[in-house]
Sequence to fold (385 residues):
Amino acid sequence: MTDTTTNRGDICVVAPTVRNPEFIEGYVENAREHDVDTDRLHVVLVTEDFCEKDAMRTMLDDLGVTGAVFGGAERDDWYDQAGIAEFSDVVPAASHAETSFGLLYAWAHPEFETIVFLDDDTQPHEEFDFFGDHLDRLGTTTTVEHVASDEQWVNVLYQNVEEHGLYPRGYPYSAMGETVRTSEAQTDEIVASQGLWTNVPDLDAVRILMDGDLQGQAQTRTSAEDFTGNFAVEDGHYLTVCSMNLAFKREVIPAFYQFPMDDNEWEIGRFDDIWSGLTLKKAADMLDKSVVTGYPLCVHNKAERSTFSDLNNEVPALELNEHFWKALEDAPDSAPDYATAYEEMIEAVDAYDFSAYHNSEFIDFTVEKMRRWLAAIRTLEDGTA
Fold:
């Protein structure tokens, strides 16, 4: 049964989950504790048919929030009802990148002004007004620290890197050892707000192994003291974007496709939100918008799993990751809207020569999915789904 709710709020909360749907209770409780009107929240749980979908629906009812639970069968029904069944392949099966379904769902419903991505192994810090902090930032301008480096990359963990030495998942190895510069400046309109994470840092498998952890976590942990406030990354510079704690304006969706991981012949995974973060930042620069990172923090309680399993997903695309952002650099510096910005990025990636790199054929696969993503978005533009 697909979503039939008509009294949705204006905030679409999207969370992929197969293990711990109850995590959402902590976020709803945080909203109520900080006087955020939970009638504004519409929770979309993207799950699988083997999970207890009815129990998830009951949980949302008991929490007093509207929402929808989409397993594979419900997603297929929704594609048919929305008239985009031919584009269902843009959302990979059994992958964290199924968050792209949440983006299609939100795009089909113009009442959603804000989308929030959460992961089911997180919880909000009680001292932060989780939704309020994100919402207060979006659509505004503010004077905040701007960060850049001589490598065109900013480590989102730079604020205490001298102590912990961490670089996040997706940060290019070739950009490590950067020289950072900071300055106070006013942002453009903020279209995305990325919160960071305490406890288990978001590292890739190579860095986890170097940290001496075989259980997919990290021996080095982060705390609230490692983060000193919000910052923006200067135009023309890149950062990693993690979808476990992220709020953004609906308008960015055409340029924010979560890349097709796991469900591919190269068995590449773990770069869905990393590469989508690059296209988001490039699009924001092209449209004179800003992405701000820092607060509110969440607690990342990543479950133990084999570090080598993550390594097997990441290694086939590690070399491509060193160059994907350089292809985006070849896109123009401006665009009139996010769809056009994404078109320009697609053409830039398609034209870039990846042939010398391992698994370069994955880029051709990706370009085709990017094009089909944009076609699906344009099919849904009338908002009738």
The longest strand covers residues 289-300. Residues 11-379 form one domain. The chain has a mean pLDDT of 96.
